[in-house]
Protein: Regulator of chromosome condensation rcc1
Amino acid sequence: MLGVFGRVIGANDTGGTKHLLYSDWHCSVFMSQEGVYVFCDSAKFSLSCEPRQFCSNTSHLFILSKSGNILSFSKSQHLITAANTPPFRSIAATDDELYCISADEVLSVYSLNGFPNNLNTHRPLSMKIKSVACGRIQQGNRHVGHGDLETRTSPELIAALTPVTVTAIACGSWHSVCLTDTGDIYTWGSNEFGQLGCPSLNLERSRNLNDPLFSSDACVNLSALPVPVDLPEDVSIVAIACGSRHTACLSEHKQLLTFGWNGFGQLGFDAELRKMPGRYPHQGASDKVNRTSLPFPSQSELSLSCGSWCTIVRAME
Structure:
């Protein structure tokens, strides 16, 4: 299922012709009865593999097949190339590097300078790695969870998270989220659009421009340390994903919880004023934890992913 401008729809609602698998600012991947296709610059390109996972950066879309092979799609040249790498089970990318986790939980990092023809790789960590995610690094936007805004050029343990057991991580463009073994989530980074799930200074100030008594003590635009999200008491999270400026979570009872920017309805509801009471429709955003029930059978196995401006929940019945 996917949301189209805030309306949650299923494949049958669109005639069953296409299933959205992945989307970023430049291209999208769809599956139909004919196969799997990449759409970029109004053109359609066929994929010859059965995909397991996607990630992308400014110049490339990377496809991990179910057999563990990696293909790269050049957004400018519209070429699909197979990389001569060993099998992997998970991938993530920045503009400079491709991060790959093997079945035995070894992290390999490939330089994208000359990739896939020149495969320069290194292994920065001796410990086993279960999950990897990548955000964006820009001047003044270095939010890596250490309580400061300094750049880290090598992996460093986040001290604030050592008391908990992290089971999954996700990154947006300027924020990060982690899931613990108790079903709680922690967020850090930019909160300009409420994507951390806590009161946003930017959003609250925009609603109180003419209020001389406005107090910003409880609001933040940025958190340099991981903070717990105040979830409803009956909610335990089992999966997380990040778009560019929004966060999506899947609960054990098959409910979708979202917060952040909603300019394209990626939170699962319309951004109109009458449909966003208590939120910030003039900014197209919400720093509240919004809950959406999903019309899936109880036995369905769900997966959650986000494109830059969309949220995708898939069901395997």
Remarks:
- Residues 6 and 269 are 4 Å apart (CA to CA).
